[in-house]
Amino acid sequence: MSSDSTNTAPCVAPWLEVQRSAGRLCLWLLGLEALTGMVLGLTYTPSLEHAWSSVYYIQDRMTFGARVRDVHRLTGDALLLACAVYAGLFLCRAGTRKNAAAKPPTGQRPAGQRPTGQRPVGQRFPWRGLVLWWALLGIGALVLGMEISGLRLPWDQTSYWALTVEMNLARALPVVGPFIHRVVAGADTLGQLALTRLYAAHVLILPAMAALLLALAKKLTSQPQAAPGVASHEKSATNQGTALGKTAPFGAETLVVLAFIIGAILWSVNGGAPLGAPADPARTFPARPEWFIRPLYKLRELAPPALELVAVFVIPGLLGAILAMFPLVLRRLPAHSRKWALILGATFVALPATLAWASLKDDAENQDLQVALAEDQQRETRAKELAHLGVPPGGPLVMLARDPMTRGRELYEQSCMGCHMYQGRGERKAPDIDGLMSRGWILDMLKDPTHDRFFGKADLDDDMPSQSKLGEANLIPIRDFLYALGQQDAPKFDRTIVDNPIQTQSAELQESKPIHPEVAFADVVPLFEAKCVSCHEWKDEGDFLGMGAPDLTDYGSMAWLRTQVLDPEHIYGDLNKMPAFQETWNEQDLNVLLQFVYLQRYP
Amino acid sequence: MMGFESYMDTDPKPSSAPISGSSPSSAPSSTPRSGSAGVPPTGDPGRRHALRVIGTVGAGACVAATAPWVAGHVLAPGNRPSSRGPSAQNASSHGAATSEFVVGAAGQLSETPLLLAVVGDQVDGWTRATEQVLGHVWVRKNNQGEVQALNAECPHLGCRIGFQKQRGHFQCPCHESAFGLDGTVLEGPSPRPLDSLHARVHGGKVRVQFKRFQTQTSEKVPLGTP
Ligand code: FES
User: Fold this and answer.
1) Atom 4 in ligand 1: which residue has the minimum CA distance?
2) Taking CB atoms and an 8 Å cutoff, what residues of chain A touch B173?
3) H or E segment at A411?
């Protein structure tokens, strides 16, 4: 290479320096990836149960864990860009050189002897240079592969659904598709094998291949072919490190750029390496690829459905092939048109960028998408709150499936929202869920049972009259007694629920003493019996007036709620308007739903 | 390759002249031995180079030809019969006779589609678990009272289909495919309607013959293993 800088146009030399710096930067970034990757590897665990949880642990508990992850993640992006810059400079230099040699690394040919256009007679085809270029492209492809596989490892919604789409696309390829899918995913369903394989590819297979190619590239640049008239040891001295900056691995300018990159990453930590809600095949999620695949995403959208695979595989494949052959093309071109070829090439960089930008803009304007993302954000927040207290061995999905505020709420939205309102959502054909059976709720209900919050919209045949006339002096003891009835079988919520910030912590939640309301409130029972039991059923008695008012036995307890949901007629008799939800849920779901409702009593 | 190359470069004895190069795969290994067979002391670098190329290409071709086959068998344990054990009936989504799943109670159904989970045994690599969610179905009663079940996996590229209550149609969040209540494609890139599944009500329960299908095809191609 130095033969270039000395023998040919001096304008080449600064570019050579820039290219060397870019090469060094790539190596430094690769090293940084390896280093941070090792740190993350101390904790990350590639299993469906532990992947998300271990990443969360890295973020949440590990010293500098979040920072290390940010650096690892964003250095990957920076590396991709640096590789692209390096490749661009490589081609630029190949294109702007004045001598006949096609590519920089083959610069051992006597410079300036021949105009471009035809290969000099007796001169050998510069395989070495071409192979070097391919090796570099291969390294770039491997970096891309590491980036993609790495981004799937957290196994959150984003990574899971992106992987789903990618693997389905791969499977759609003719002939090789099913094979690729089988090799990468290991099975038809994306599960443990897929994750293990991605991990193996990310930390072992791809880096090993990249290391091999790097070694090959180094060999190609440091051992030039013997060329007529030039002693080979001279060559190896002058040519060393042209491509990869081996001569000066500590180039100051490279270190400055590197420091700048790391600084920028650390400074803009927020969202550097996001972790979404845990992957859940059951939940709708808008799959979107990362920025460097965005152009393909948009291209697919623009293509007619029949040509999707062409857009996604053939076009990038062709571009890759053109890129691989670009040095040859440049070599064939006369000097003055090389510049134009390079300018043309540069416009190809602008095109994907435009596509990606258009796609991101579409998404920002897509209302449905924003709503879906907001919902998932809620789930993410909740999952992290729970995970902060420890994830059960079954994994984050088990954790969420046991959480009343997640699963219970979800079940409410599936089946109850049509009649019961909660936090302003849902219809009002029955009492609201908010604060149901809490002390305040009971008192307000006694005072004004036909308020819309309570039974106003329930359209009952007989409405309960307001009990305000009893006065607070009577209502409050009655309220406390009714409330205590519900406390009899209060479930022992585990720590994860007690500590949950969505549902304010309440000391009562931790009360585990058995409650005997009729003993504790012995003085209230006569009042209760006098005022309530004349209309309401109570322990197989009551309703002396024949009003058919709801049964108050164990009012508001888990058992009462269960009956209310599975067999409401048992409580409401002829007044009942609520459907019976027998066999709608399995035992676990039913329990979680009842707990969700029960938790409302702790406002 | 690099080692090979440097060996050839530094070999003081020219070696390859008599080799015809017609048998690519044997060329590299036979080169050194044949060097003693009365060859002129200076080899022809062009020919040596050609041999090297041919040898490399030949060896590469052999590897390339067998690698997929080997890799396919080594890397895809899902392909081996042992992974479908005798008790995998419910886990195996293509065993037609045994793939009927109870997904819910008949009382829940209405004309508005309801998303129900298909729960059964699942084999994932070396694990077998009971009561796993194998997939989801959208179930509704049409106006003739027939039960209709659609696999909630998008036929385009496999995202989970949602239902848009206000607009009264199914919608995929990934590439905006929209489907009518009966599963027909209203818009978007989906190559076929939502996959309808055989469903019936028996003993008050909704039973669905759950299957998954390959995405991106215009016909329904059932997937092999669960
Ligand atoms: S996956 Fe449903 S439209 Fe693409």
Assistant:
1) B175
2) 284-287, 368-369, 372
3) helix A409-415
Whether the per-residue pLDDT at A233 is higher than 60: the answer is: no
- Per domain, the residue ranges of chain A are 2-106+115-225+234-289, 402-601
Sheet of B178-179: strand order equals B162-164, B169-171, B178-179, B185-187
| pLDDT tens sequence across A70-102 | 889 989 999 999 998 888 888 877 766 554 444
Beta strands in A85-186 (DSSP E): none
Residue B60 is encoded by which pair of tokens? 């590469």
Give the range of the structural domain holding residue B14, as residue numbers without chain letter.
1-42
Domain count along chain B: 3
- Taking the centre of ligand 1 as the mean of its atom positions, its distance from the CA of residue B177, in whole angstroms, is 6
Q: In this predicted structure, what is the pLDDT of residue A513?
A: 57
CATH 1.10.1740.10 given to domain A2-106+115-225+234-289: no
- Does residue B116 belong to any structural domain of this protein? yes
Residue bearing the CA closest to ligand 1, atom 1: B157
How close, in Å, is residue B153 to chain A by CA atoms? Answer: 10
Distance CA A267, CA A275 (A): 18
Nearest-Cα distance to chain B for A522, in Å, is 43
- Structural contact between residues B170 and B164, judged by C-beta atoms closer than 8 angstroms: yes
Residue ending a domain, among B80, B103, B130, is: B80
One-letter-per-residue 3-state SS of A190-207: CCHHHHHHHHHHHHHHHH
Residue A212 has pLDDT above 90, yes or no: yes
Residue numbers of chain B with a pLDDT score lower than 50 = 1-41, 79-97, 225-226
